[in-house]
């Protein structure tokens, strides 16, 4: 880590602590696709802030938290979700 970022072979990634906001999503790396930050915490406020910006955590237990915002990314609007009868039956 160098200062407030990690230098990776493909570019810089923000280093988060408890008070550091996420960088703009256009700062996400192209390789690996969408890596935007490392570190921070999984508090409710951090998760809510991340999701509102199209960012999500994905990491392995015991390793630093990796935050992602790949391009393109899927956005699911629950009120627009159509579930087939067969899937609804299976979910019950």
Secondary-structure topology with pairs:
Layout: E1 5-8, E2 11-16, E3 35-39, H1 44-52, E4 56-57, E5 66-68, H2 85-91
Parallel strand pairs: 2-3
Antiparallel strand pairs: 1-2, 3-5, 4-5
What's this entry about, in short?
With 92 residues, this protein is an alpha+beta fold. The chain has 2 helices and 5 strands; from the N terminus they run βββαββα.
Number of extended strands: 5
Strand content: 15-25%
**Biggest sheet statistics:** 5 strands, mixed
How big is the Rg? 16 Å
The CATH topology annotation reads as: Alpha-Beta Plaits
- Helical content class: 10-25%
Sheet with the most strands: spatial strand order: 1-2-3-5-4
The total number of structural domains is 1
The CATH homologous superfamily is named Leucyl/phenylalanyl-tRNA-protein transferase, N-terminal domain
Low-pLDDT sequence parts: none
- Determine the N-to-C terminus distance: 48 Å
Protein structure class: alpha+beta
General shape: elongated
Architecture, according to CATH? 2-Layer Sandwich
Average pLDDT, rounded to a whole number, is 92
Number of helices, counting only DSSP H or I runs of 4 residues or more: 2
Level-1 CATH class name: Alpha Beta
Topology as a string of helices (H) and strands (E): EEEHEEH
């Amino acid at each position: 880590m160098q200062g407030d970022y990690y230098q990776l072979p493909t570019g810089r990634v923000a280093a988060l602590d408890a008070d550091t906001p996420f960088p703009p999503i256009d700062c996400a790396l192209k390789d690996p696709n969408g890596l935007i930050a490392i570190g921070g915490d999984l508090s409710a406020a951090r998760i809510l802030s991340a999701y509102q910006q199209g960012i999500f955590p994905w990491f392995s237990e015991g390793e630093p938290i990796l935050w992602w915002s790949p391009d393109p990314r899927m956005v699911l609007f629950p009120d627009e979700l159509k579930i087939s009868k067969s899937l609804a039956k299976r979910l019950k």
